[in-house]
Amino acid sequence: MSSEKQTIIILGAGPAGLMLAFKLLQRAELNIELIIIEKRNHPGGIAASFQQEGIWLDYGSHRLHPSTPEHILNDIKNIIGPSLLKRVRNGRIRLQGHYLKFPLQPLDCLVHLPVSFIFGIFRDILKKPFRPSGPALSFADQLLHGLGPTICEKFYFPYAKKLWGCPPDQIDVEQARKRVSAGTVSKIVKKMLSFLPGVNSSEANVFYYPEEGIGQISEKLAAKVTDMDGQIIYDTTVTGITMEKSRGFSISVKKHNDVHKQLKADFIFSTIPVTRIVSLLASKRSCPALTAAESLTHRNMVFFYLLMECDQWQVVDAHYFPETDYIFSRISEGKNYNGTLTPRGKTIICCEIPCQHDDEIWLADDEKLKRLVLADMKKGAIPAKNLVKVFSKRQTNVYPVYTIGYSKKLRVIEQYLSKIPTLISLGRQGLFTHDNIHHTMMMADRAAHCLGINGQWDVDKWEEFCNEFSNYVVVD
Ligand SMILES: Cc1cc2nc3c(=O)[nH]c(=O)nc-3n(C[C@H](O)[C@H](O)[C@H](O)COP(=O)(O)OP(=O)(O)OC[C@H]3O[C@@H](n4cnc5c(N)ncnc54)[C@H](O)[C@@H]3O)c2cc1C
11 in ligand 1 pocket by Cβ < 6 Å? Predict the structure, then answer.
């Protein structure tokens, strides 16, 4: 055990911050006091849940994917116990006026997609050898080369515009690598085949889901962290970080009741937006990292919920809407995720509406959102049933936007932060990525192994792990 007690402060009680706390507290050889600071009054971050009318709801569709590394999955299973359910996916995607099973299945596509669409894909395959093959600069270049115009123009390009709010030729090529796991037609077919029963033993078509919503993972982890003598301070926002002359940090925090406090830390792990951490640290307005941080952008999301008087609205768990004709990108029905039939006579669905900070959607009241959502549900042939109530929730920074040139700015920030070896930024927002829960938990697991017993940080090991993280591809 190290001689001097180290104070470790983790910013953010989402899946990454909590898993990191759990992993650090498990290391008996570390002599640490561990505090998590969370601005909300509950754990879970974007992957939190809440209950309404006796129904567990998430902030949009959330599942724990079967690609979760085994040791992380085992940790979650041990912490949650039998409440972690294994469920079969049952999604649909709206394309060209038709619903297809999602994840896509070959026969279903052949039967339901318009002949012109299928013909277009075959034409694109034949033309592929003649498409320009220079280095791709943008999301559009990369996908056009790999997939051809039919799939791009009817599916990926409108989806990109909807999700990230900018044209696909202004989105960095990295976005295609991180978000599109099947970037060629042959990869799409291979992926579709992997979802056929009996083809893939890794059970590609299942997911894990806790009885009380995805947030139950974080709730249970938070309880475990507290049991292990970690402290979680909720309702508290970090408002400033100063590096002390000798060593460590002084962190200014503000409670929601406006009480200000100073906390001392030897080591900080931050899972809050990396753009924010730079603005908390940078003392000079002229700091290049601050300029870079201020020019990186995120998308926001409005989660619009509809309470209906019926046991179940649809048998499908999630409907995906890549086309821009619909304001929502996805609709999910909470009861279909944990498979509960109770409470009887009511169900709630959640529409995910990506938007910009302060745009028309972000500022819209529930009446306006209701009009827009109901009209598009009707257009999609899935009207509401016995609607009794609507409500909305909002989250900022849900998707980082990778406009061309973003990586240069991110590098400026990374270089700035690398000069502060006792402050590590990680997690989905800390690394400015789109990653899944299991990815961010892996980051936490890896980070916990880089801290030495006297508080020294293994820079080389962390760099190696960061290279590993940069290869993560988002699972939808
Ligand atoms: C619509 C949507 C659907 C998704 N679906 C899935 C899915 O099906 N499966 C999957 O694996 N992943 C999914 N994800 C991704 C998943 O939500 C994230 O991977 C996960 O939440 C990231 O965890 P994190 O701890 O890194 O970050 P976060 O969850 O963002 O947690 C960061 C925490 O920091 C806190 N914080 C921020 N600023 C401050 C501050 N100044 N002071 C104190 N605290 C602060 C926040 O309140 C938050 O609790 C989805 C994401 C979205 C947006």
Answer: yes
90, part of any domain: no
Residues 268, 119 within the same domain: no
- One domain for residues 171 and 224: no
Whether residues 141 and 282 fall in one domain: no
The Cα diameter of the chain in Å comes to: 72
Q: Determine the structural domain holding residue 220 and report its residue range.
A: 6-47+211-295+403-469
Report the chain's terminal Cα–Cα distance, integer Å: 42
91-95 and 318-320 beta bridge pairing: parallel
Residue type (1 letter), 168? P
Rounded Cα gap, residues 76 and 71, in angstroms: 9
CATH of the domain at 159: 1.10.3110
| Residue 14 in contact with ligand 1 by CB distance below 6 A | yes
Please identify, by atom number, the ligand 1 atom nearest to the C-alpha of residue 239: 41
Q: Which residues contact 134 (CB under 8 A, 6 or more apart)?
A: none
Collapsing DSSP to helix, strand or coil, 16 comes out as helix
Cβ of 63 closer than 6 Å to ligand 1, yes or no, is yes
**Count of the separate structural domains present in the chain:** 2
What is the best residue among 9, 18, 59, 62 to mutate for testing ligand 1's pocket, by most ligand atoms within 8 Å of CB? 62
- CA-based nearest residue to 313, from 350, 366, 367: 350
Residue 350 covered by a domain: no
Ligand 1 pocket member 38 (CB < 6 A): yes
ipTM of predicted complex = 0.99
10: in domain: yes
Q: Is the CB of 89 under 6 A from ligand 1?
A: no
Ligand 1 pocket residue status of 271, Cβ below 6 Å: yes
| CA dist 129 → 119, 140, 147, 154, 177 (Å) | 17, 18, 12, 21, 21
Per-residue pLDDT of the chain (476 residues; tens, 9 = 90+): 556 899 999 999 999 999 999 999 999 999 999 999 999 999 999 999 999 999 999 999 999 999 999 999 999 999 999 999 999 999 999 999 999 998 878 888 888 888 888 888 888 888 878 777 778 889 998 888 888 888 899 889 999 999 999 999 999 998 888 877 666 666 666 666 566 555 555 577 899 999 999 999 999 999 999 999 999 999 999 999 999 887 899 999 999 777 889 999 999 999 999 999 999 998 777 799 999 999 999 999 999 999 999 999 999 999 999 999 999 999 999 999 999 989 999 999 999 999 999 999 999 999 999 999 999 999 999 999 999 999 999 999 999 999 999 999 999 999 999 999 999 999 999 999 999 999 999 999 999 999 998 889 999 999 999 999 998 988 88
Q: How long, in residues, is the chain?
A: 476
